[in-house]
Write a structure and sequence with these properties.
globular, single chain, mainly alpha, 16 helices, 0% strand
Length: 384
């Protein structure tokens, strides 16, 4: 109660006529993050829920924590394994090194993204929107650990301003902001996003970790497939996540824990998740049966960003299909396109982020045809 009383005491300073009125949006954003607002919308809403969008975003962040924590450990694991010192390193050494490599990227992501959100809200005299709470943690998880900070800053600024704010902010954007960030990085700076030199942290930090030789390389399983060689990682490593890759995308177990949290909280659609895997699995099986892909269909589903994209990005309620039937088509399309891009275009071995981008583009069209189909069906029933 003391915090609530303190906020009530200083709140008049941030309201109209107060000496800190210029920072009203900042105060409102902080207050509504700590406490559910006691006001409700006056128009445009017919149902008032006990949970607001900030609480929903916070639950998604919680669901992402297992992938973040494992990503930290795997960053350290890959460094020590590459140096041949994994057997002599303790769990704490490995994890702390990974945390020191990953956390600065999370901080940069939030500082830049939320900074733009705050500045935009102040300029427009609007409430600070909460959409970047989730995007800010997803972005560091879908990039290689060696991504330069200045490139990351440019990508975040581009995605937030061009991908969201110019459309009207959270809830109005037509593309997933994290996907746009990843696309900006890939097409703007491909050498920093692909290749065999970008997946392992190569410098020691505060005496932890190992400084690897210049020119050290480490291919991901998908990178090996693109080069025409079979992956050296075992299926067990693919599922647990002890393979090179983007920070938060390697562990299927950690992602599955996040999926359970999202489904338990009723935030993400199980139809979208399941249909992504169905679409990807079916197309992967077809490619494998024709000899176009040397790996089994289920290996496609546990490699790269496929599972992460299916759970945390394809289910984005703003940019995905809204109709219940449309979610099946939307997810199936994303899964199928992701595998098609992987197999048919060796220059772009990942495919998942591009598939989600395409899915965002056609989601309104899918919903339109589903709604029109329902209208036609009802019209036919009325005639009878």
């Amino acid at each position: 109660m003391s915090l609530r009383n303190y906020l009530d005491k200083i709140k008049p300073n941030f309201e109209e006529g107060g000496k800190l009125h210029a920072f009203q949006s900042m105060f409102d954003g902080f207050e509504t993050f700590l406490y559910v607002p006691n006001t409700t919308s006056k128009s445009g809403a017919s149902i008032h829920d006990a949970i607001d969008s900030k609480r929903i975003m916070f639950m998604v962040v919680i669901a992402l924590i297992p992938a973040l924590l494992f990503g930290m450990y795997n960053v350290g694991y890959q460094n020590y394994a590459a140096a041949g010192t994994i057997n002599t390193a303790s769990f704490c050494e490995i994890f702390v090194f990974g945390a020191l490599a990953v956390l600065p990227k999370v901080i940069v992501s939030y500082v830049v993204g939320l900074g733009i959100e705050f500045a935009w809200a102040q300029y427009k005299h609007e409430e600070i929107q909460e959409g970047y709470l989730v995007t800010g943690i997803i972005i560091p998880l879908i990039i290689p650990v060696t991504t330069p900070y200045w490139i990351l800053v440019l990508a975040i600024a581009f995605a937030v301003i061009i991908g969201k704010e110019i459309f009207g902010g959270t809830g109005m954007n037509i593309f997933n902001v994290a996907v746009l960030t990843r696309m900006f990085l890939f097409f703007g700076y491909p050498s920093k996003m692909t290749g065999d030199t970008v997946w392992v942290a190569q410098d020691s930090i505060f005496g932890l970790g190992n400084t690897l030789p210049d020119g050290f390389t480490m291919a991901t399983p998908l990178g090996q497939l693109a080069q025409g060689t079979a992956p050296t990682a075992s299926l067990c490593d693919m599922i647990t996540g002890f393979i090179p890759g983007s920070i938060g995308e390697t562990s299927i177990i950690a992602i599955a824990i996040g999926a359970v949290i999202l489904l338990w909280a009723g935030i993400a659609s199980w139809k979208t998740m399941l249909s992504v895997f169905l679409g990807g699995g079916l197309v992967a099986a077809l490619f494998h049966s024709t000899g176009a892909s040397p790996i089994e269909w289920y290996e496609q589903l546990v490699l790269g960003g496929f599972a992460f994209g299916a759970v945390f990005m394809a289910t984005d309620p703003v940019t995905s299909a809204r109709t219940e039937t449309g979610k099946w088509f939307y997810g199936f399309f994303i899964g199928a396109i992701a595998v098609v891009v992987r197999v048919m275009n060796p220059g772009y071995p990942e495919g998942m982020m591009l598939a989600i981008l395409f899915g965002n583009m056609i989601a309104p069209l899918i919903d339109y045809y589903v709604v029109q189909s329902n209208i036609s069906s009802r019209a036919k029933r009325m005639k009878h």
